[in-house]
Structure formats: C-alpha cells, structure tokens
C-alpha cells in the first residue's frame, strides 16, 4: 500500500483563515483547539497531494506539517482493541496500576504517545525497535484506568516499560506471588530481632 500522509495547515506569518475557501474546496476539515487556535487537517493524502500543498503553503506563508497517516490517532482503535482482546468477565486490568475496571471505565492508552510519534522521527525509530510501525498498532495499545491515563499524559521513559510489562497477562499474578515470597523472606531474616519480643508477649498473656 502506498504511503499516505495527514496534512495539517496552520497559521504562519499569514492567517490560515484567508485560505479557508480553498481548503474547504480541497476537503480539509477545520479543527479548533481550546486556545482558539485554528488549523486545517486532511487525512490520507497522497505523496503528490502533500508536495502540492507544501508548495502552496510556502507561497502563502502558512505553516505546513505532514505526518505519515499510520502515526496519527485513528478513530476506531478502541473498538479494534476490544475486538482483539475480548474479556470473558467484562473487566479489564489497568496496565499501570493493576486495578480491574469495567469496560466503560477503562481507557485505551497509546504506550508511545501519539503526540510524540507524530512530532519526533527518533521516537518512531525507537518504537520500530519494539516492532511498532504505527500509533494504533495493537502492540502500542494497552488498557489504563482514567487516573493512570491522566497521570501518564504524553510521558515516556519508565511509563513505556510499565505499559509493555503491565499489559502481559502473567505480570500481575506473578507480582503478587513475588510480593508474598518477599514478605515471608523479610520475616525470616528478621526472626532474631522480633521473635524474643513475640515470646515475651505470649508469656505475659499466659501469666
Ligand atoms: Zn491505573
């Protein structure tokens, strides 16, 4: 399949609003952000169309951005994820904190954030090392509760590792077993310190 691009046209030294009729005719959609900034976007542009718009923007002093379409957020990644990983109990585990939540309270998180994938080719190359060749790749998606999703935002680093390990089904049961083993091990190591105290206490109870 030929490579397609998501083209975004933003204000440059000139306002993008001046070209809105041309962009509307070219089937660009207007997207408004909270800070009242406006830009125009069109998905699935061919290479030819992208280059054409780039020249147009240069002439009109507008800011031009193009991202390979597979790195932008798709509209159906959530339903695709639930179709691929159906849960028999209807509950999903958050990959970051391990809490189980019902389907309507769980969000689908991009482990490598969409924003970083769009902006930085270095992040795309790093993701490719994990076998991820698009933001909406199933390997790049994990379940997250709303709290963890808000905490993570567009962070990378340790969150990437947490996401990849936490989404494995064996991780949380294994972690629980290891915690129990660790607790018993610490109790075993400290027995000389607290056992006399425990015996004293038992003796006082018997008196
Ligand atoms: Zn969580």
TrEMBL record:
The keyword Phosphoprotein does not apply. It comes from the Bacteria. The chain crosses the membrane at residues 170-190. CDD domains: HNHc. Residues 94-154 form the HNH domain. Keywords: Membrane, Transmembrane, Transmembrane helix. Pfam families: HNH (PF01844). GO terms for molecular function: endonuclease activity; nucleic acid binding; zinc ion binding. This is HNH domain-containing protein. It comes from Roseburia faecis. The lineage of its organism: Bacteria, Bacillati, Bacillota, Clostridia, Lachnospirales.
